[in-house]
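ok so for the tutorial part 2 we go from a plain amino acid sequence to predicted structure tokens. step 1 is just haveing the sequence, like this:
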Amino acid sequence: MAQQQFQGGVVLAGGKGVVAGGTAYNSGGFAAINEGVVSGATIGNQGGVLASQISNYGGSAGLIVDTHVQSGGVGLAGGGFTLKGQSFVGPGVISASRFDIGSTEAIASGGTDLGSIVGGTQFVSAGGSAVGTLFSAGTQLLGAGAWASGCIASAGGLIYVGGGARSIAATLGAGGSLVADASATVDRLTIQAAAAATLKAQSYMTTALIAAGGTLTVNSGATLVNAVISGISTEGEGPGGLLVVQSGAVLKGITIGWKGRIDVDTLSWTDGQRIVYGNNSISIVDATGKIVWTADVHGTKGNAATDYHLERDPTDGSTIIVYDKCFLKGTMILTDRGEIAVEDLAVGDRVAAFVDGETIYREIVWLGHRSTIVRTWLEDDEAGYPVRILRNALGEGVPSRDLLVTPEHAMYLNGAFVPARMLVNGRSIFYDRTITHFDYYHVETDEHSIIWADNALSESYLDTGDRKRFAQPGAVVHLLNAPEATWDGDGAAPLRVDRGFVEPLHASLAHRAASLNLGSNQQAPEITEDPDLHLVDEKGRIMRRMRVVNRSSVFMLPPDAKRVRLVSRVSRPVDVIGPFHDDRRHLGVLVGEIQIWEADRTRHLADHLSDETLEGWANIEDGRQRWTTGSALIDLSDRQSDAVCIVAIEVLAGGPYLTQAPAQLCGAQVG
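step 2 — the prediction. this is what the tokens look like for a chain of 671 residues:
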């Protein structure tokens, strides 16, 4: 039956009857019941279309297909509706239809949507389902007892999973989002670039893929199980996937790829933080060695902490974990067929490995390839500049030509692995600042190996469990079912970052560089012992110290100075002592006692020795002294306000400092 435009009535298709075409609006509608079909209809403002079933008339679900519901129109599927005095009990199906912005689709018990395109709002209630629906600027609202499978949200589309609802195998394209409320369940979610998902407290998600440029936020009390934070795409630029976690979030079985990131949203970044491993978990510890965050990160088996670095989130100051290490393009790897450029290697090739003083050959089981951009605004060791190791820097013919590696890539020297950044001497080994964008490669053998790269001994890749997230040159993959590995148990040699081991090695390589008459590739920094110590109050007034008595700097404060900052130069021990000293904290001065002298009393201030959250102070170490980070808050709000006072600050240590790093005036606002 072909239909024309009508309003105010209902055209019924039942008993395998078909209504094809037609337009309904202004209280007009179509109904497909008991195996009836409505096809190709158009539903205008205040019009409706229904797929359902009437009791005692035989037949199964009604079907609506290829129907266009415009703004103000409504589509209904399932039971529980009453139209024109008639009750509909369901089931019903809406398939391959289109819902414009401003339209509504309601899927009740027994109702199903199959593959429609929704720009309006889709409500799915208990017993209803949606399969393969595409939301482009539209919204899917899943109520308790509802479920959806294979749905896609992009270009402003939103999937909202309410308490008691379940979303399965959804995909978020660019501009798409998903929110899971308390008691909601999300299975097998894919988050593509420029898409985002949020797990609220008491929600649960399992098996998620966060692609490069995608974001998943896990709030306190939510649970995430078996997620992959993907690295950047082949030849790609920018960051990998981002997992944002709050305190109290539960993480299990997380795998992170190259350039993948974990933002610990409730952990403020501080100097001295570092990463450690243990029992298939990744942890962040502070400068005192105290664990301040930990999570079950399946797939970090066998890796060293130097494979990762920590960054400060510029938007909120939180701590971000980033994974990054590699060989650069053009590096020559020794194989049983001679030297081959790393980019030309293939799975199945046999590379030479140094084992117990002998050369054996091991098969390549995996190759990875990515690109990166240097973060030029950071310090050299954290920016990502490649380290250039000049020909003959490590010995005669070692390397055989200039070798480029990432700062955290480990070289094998004196029986141990040492990160390349700790060997930098500015002559034979230095950061190449002319390279700000480069390709890098990863080579994995069936066992962690010491291999030859440009005739220098280096490490092969140690499996982190995320091979499947990386591009490979070719279709052949050597499948492994290896047990969990650890660096201590499965590494080809120990990783050494302690000064006692690295400093003599660094000195030996620097001496060799001098004997080769190699000029410096970096300007020697100017050093000063002067901390440029002063106070700054909330009005921006600067107070210089009046004098120094023993180790205490004495300042006079005006009556209305209630909150001041102890401001000084800042240095990193690694910059002023040497790269062989693995301490990259930003430190100002080490403060002991603080005294305040007023007209009728003398007091000792101790907040800086007990308050871990006090701004501008590094981690508390022993309760008797504490480093500043260049602009440390001192709260004097309970002082007498009718007279000047004297403040004495005991400075136990500080410096040396780089002169080009000025005192940290107003590093944070006072007040």
